[in-house]
Amino acid sequence: MPSTTHTVIAIAKKAPQWWLGGFFVLLLAGCSGTKFIPEGSKLYTGSTVAIKSESAIPNESVLTTELESVITPKPNSSILGLRPKLYFWHMGEGKTKGLGKWLADKYGEEPVLLSAVDTNNVKGLMTNRLYNNGYFKPAVSSKVKVKDNTASIDYVAAVGKPYLIKEIHFPDRDTLIDRAIRATEPNSLLKVGDPYNLQTMINERVRIDAALKNQGYYYFNPDYILFQVDSTLDNEANVYLKIKGTIPPQAAKPYVLNRVTLDTDYTLSDTTEGAKEPVMFRGYRYFPDEKVFKAKAITNATFIYPDSIYRRRRSDQTLSRLMSLGTFKFVDIRYRAANQPDSGGYGHLNSLVRMTQVPKKSLRAEVQMNVSNIFTGPGIVLQFRNRSALRGAEQLLINARASFETGNGIQSGVTSTTIGVDGQLLVPRLITPPFDIRLRNSDFQPRTFFNAGYKYVLRTNFFQQDVFNLGYGYSWKTKVTNEQQLQPINVEYLRLANTDAAFDSLLRERPFLANSFRQQFVLGSSYTYTYNQQVLEQRRNQIYFSGGVELAGNLAYLLQSTKGAPQNEQGNYELFGQEFSQYTKVNLEFRDYFRVSPDATSGNRFATRLLIGVGVPYKNSNVLPYLKQYGIGGPNSVRAFAARGIGPGTYRSQDPEDVTSFYDQVGDMRLEANIEYRHDLFPYVKGALFVDAGNIWLINADADRPTFDANGQPDGKNGQFKFNSFFRELAVGAGAGIRIDVQFFVIRFDAAYPLIYPFENSAFQTPNGDDYNKLDSGFKAVRLNIGIGYPF
What is the pTM of this model? Predict the structure, then answer.
């Protein structure tokens, strides 16, 4: 056996060229696909399209693409001239089961032969497309090119000058509908001097129909518009827009709403509408009564009015506003011609708005597995919802929460018990006395929200916290992609109680940390703007942006300083005996989702994210309150590092075994970037490859968080952000993941490997004499993360 092995090796060494070359040729023959073509047939490899003209061709690339789109059939897919799908198809040829059959069905592709190409049909379709683009005398030819067992086809379209629009004539009769169409002419898509284009004319019909629908022409249809084109001129065309003479009489007149009925308790089995007694309010017939809703709440969200012109825009707006109240499962609007004589050429419509309610009150219990950057553990949430708490479609939500969690990464061993209750009242209007702001041109219901809450937190062996919050604000949308939120009042207060000796010692050793915990009284205001294209599901490239600014303590500081209030031992003002925070904080988030496949159902996409956060303390503060500081690392951040295991800057705790060290790993600035490729694997299973990078920094240096250079000497930064070095201080990690995605629930498993440590150039020893960079402290070669939902 050994001698045989040596003999083979010897032959390979003596004749590598013909042995390896022959093997490579056989491999190419199999994957090129020509091996599986029936004798006498040719494999169709595709077509080219060329347009020839003695004059310039406007938008030649667009026209060429349109001609290419009619070519059928499509050739077999290839990669660098190879067609592996034909090989897989051949593996299953003649088989009804087995691995070969499965591979053929899953990955195979039957050969597309030249005989399947109908060149006359393709040339006819190309001629039609050229006519549609104003080329009225084209000549399309084709030529087959054969090479070995393959064939391709070259199409050539010879065209002259495109016909240009010379004159445009709108209807000139003195009728209501002709006058209405003429009134839309300034917004016409047809322009004198533009090339004749059939698609533009189709779009023009749709535009005119939409304009007429907003002027009362309920029964009008785009097909009732006719274009007559005079192309007898020399490469010029006159376009005449007319109304067909056979349209129904009701389509030629506008309609006025006669009676508008609002039924807020409609069901599919409802047959008693005639037996109900309506409540008349603001001219509406309102069913059934006001036991659940005040009539004002419904009419404020209704934008179709009795005795007004029918407008489709207002009808669509009414549907959207009523659905966004959150109190109805279904809403539809029916229109019927009223048995009433026409007046002045106007018809009359009766409208019925049918609303099917969801239950007014509900109670839901949910068991959760909380997975965050800091703690992981089970929790339970009880939620009570009243969808019309004050009979005005106000939604009252009361949540009770409890959880028991253990720390991740560096803080492993820390346990956290949380018990809390919070409430939120969502009022479906903007409460802005003395002004009445309804945003009448928006499709979405604006809201005023009030919230309040209390939370008890126990960090075993460290401290107890009582957290209070109170606030109110407004949220509104002007488009489906745009949302804004303004919160004029946001009060947050965290009170430390029952602190342990170890935690008291930590605060004495860390003045910065002590200040951040002392200033947990926040009197703030905030504004957030969000632009989200993810709601446009058919869009291949989707952009998400969120930008927000938060201001805190400025008014309190102005009041205290103006009236000459005394300052405490730290030189800061207090309010109600409590030191308050003063800062400005800006958060920016950019995301981009690019779907690789044109198929809208495909999950194969690149997802990228950039996070920028800056909080600047001033006047009454030299550090942000702890609850407002940034941490980085963990399952939803830089996944190759422990939660709050990075930064600030190149800082790293010199006692990595101390579970309290994660309190140090927070900062006033954050910079994070992520890129992830997501790929469909199997039904409900997706894969991902990702790279994460980021770090946090301080605005003001902290002497208790020293950083060192490569020689082990203090570099003086102490976690502070520096423009000339921040890029070198980014932590970078990469990895892969599996996601179980069942639409309404996603479980994520990610494995990440650190590529760059922010402190890897800071070579020094801990007080115990250990090499700083070799200590684990939560930095493992491969870090496994479990998450709920996608990281972004």
Answer: 0.78
